[in-house]
Amino acid sequence: MPTPAPLLELNKISKRFGGVQALTDVDFSAERHQVTALVGDNGAGKSTLVKIISGIVAADSGTYRFEDRIVRVDSPQAAAALGIATIYQDLALSDNLDVVANLFLGREEVGGVGLLDETDMEQQATKVLTRLAVRIPSVRTQVASLSGGQRQSVAIARSMLGKPTMVVLDEPTAALGVAQTAQVLDLIRRLRDQGLAVVVISHNLADVFAIADVIVVLWLGRQVAVLDAKQTNSEEVVAAITGANVGDRLPAEVSEP
Amino acid sequence: MTVSDLDPRLVVDQPGLAGAWAGLRRRLAQGELGPLPVIIGIAAIWLIFWIANPNFLTPGNLTNLVLQLAATGTISLGVVLVLLLGEIDLSVGAVSGVTAAVMAVLSVHHGVPGWLAILIGLVAGAAIGAFQGFWVTRFRIPAFVVTLAGLLAWTGALLAVLGDTGTVNITDPTIIGLANTFFIPLAAWLLALLVAAAYAAAKLLERRRRVAAGLPTPPLRLIVSRVVILAAAVFAAAAVLAADRGLPLALLIFAGLVVLVGLLITRTRFGRHVLAVGGNAEAARRAGIRVNNVRLVVYTLASSLAAAGGILAASRLFAVSQSSGASDTLLNAIAAAVIGGTSLWGGRGSAYSALLGGLVIFSISNGMDLLGVQSSTKFIVTGAVLLLAATVDALSRRGREAAGRV
Fold it and tell me: CB of B289 within 8 Å of any CB in chain A?
């Protein structure tokens, strides 16, 4: 019996920015109920790949399959319409608004007379935050007064309101302390347990091993390893990130950095 | 659900009056001042002028104060909207002058009916605002520069529209009626009753909906005390107005606009988007808000409100002259918004700051007029009050930063 196709499947994706070949023939896939970690050194092409997934930039060549259909994702709206939510490192929350207002920013609920339906929004906000077990003092707290981990949680909860099937997180723990990191990693596990395909970009291998099921390594714009997180160890991942043992598998012109 | 056993720094208001009091003290410390400083300021100013000249707090003078306030306060409402974006509109004074001139010339020289002349004046204001907003958003020129150019150009347009005589005296009863109509004292009392009842009903209805939705609700006592405070304020105002000429139509227009703009800011999608753009334009853009459309509409509204203010001023003075909307109109309108508590940094403020800040500005101006103070001193004092208000704004921003609420 063939295994079902992955939710997202990218084949032979290439992207060039002027004189820089950012990605070369990259294959990437993400499945439901799995956390796929995307790792690599600076300039390895992680951000470019995520931008292609979330529709911010278009690939020069390659195929983009979602739910086993070839799709054109040429705008963030197109990605969102497929059910892909992307949460960026800089969060993009409005500090002067409260949690409810931020969750519903751009898709506010409006009641019969054209006024905001605050009760309904607060109810829904409470529900989604409870479902994700996000701990904040009150949904009416201004976002400015939340900690980094809570802000990250709010940003993730906001993406959940669109009922996505896949979530992409760019460095979700980069600016967080120890306790806050644990809080966000817990939240990522809950997203996976609720059946979402989760893609996490991270520099932090400890975090990656804490949550990832699959680890995809990029090196100089090429995908050099797809590792099962339970079968591998950090030496192997570091070796792949630094390109130590992949030179023989690559054409000569890129093996010279 | 998410109630915290977490960080005590993050704890929100606990239920009950004690909790509300503790919350108030915390907000004061963290620079979330609300309207309290300006209300205290108004009380202090009134006390000082009353001691200096007991005529200050007579119903007649307070009614005059309200009439003076209505025109500039309306202009200030538009300034509040622009400030919420974190931008500035320097043209509002000149726009108020030129649109009033258009109305006056149409009415006096071309025999256009009063109501139509007023409407055309308002539409002219909206068109000017849309034009300036288009320029700001399309060419990404700082609003400061575009509206400064507007200030010069519309001042020139005012002189051109008025022509050689330089003054147009308005005779149309509809236009003059705007600022010179008084409803019988009973109307003031009824309106006060209506306002208090509507506020109480809105609060109770909201509470009932929250209870039905299973959301945390403020204690009933808190709602009752708020309604009582508001009712005391509006009934005091009604008593003052009833003791003089009655309820001025100009106040009704101004207060109605304040409430409408207040609802627009806090209860509509558009207002939410204005706050979001002022707080973090990039976040607003990524949330799918069409930031430039929001800005365009805000500039259009600001100029429309400036036109409304200019028309009220023309009505009160029975004329439009070359100095209409000039010199201190712009400064007073901006000062009122800032003194009332709308932040210069965008994203924080309220329509009611136009009312409260306007009361400060015009109480000082009116009080010093009563004392026969020279206009040189008036300018200096008003400037000092503006600087003080901006300093309070900056300090409370610093308090927020210190509390992690940038």
Answer: yes
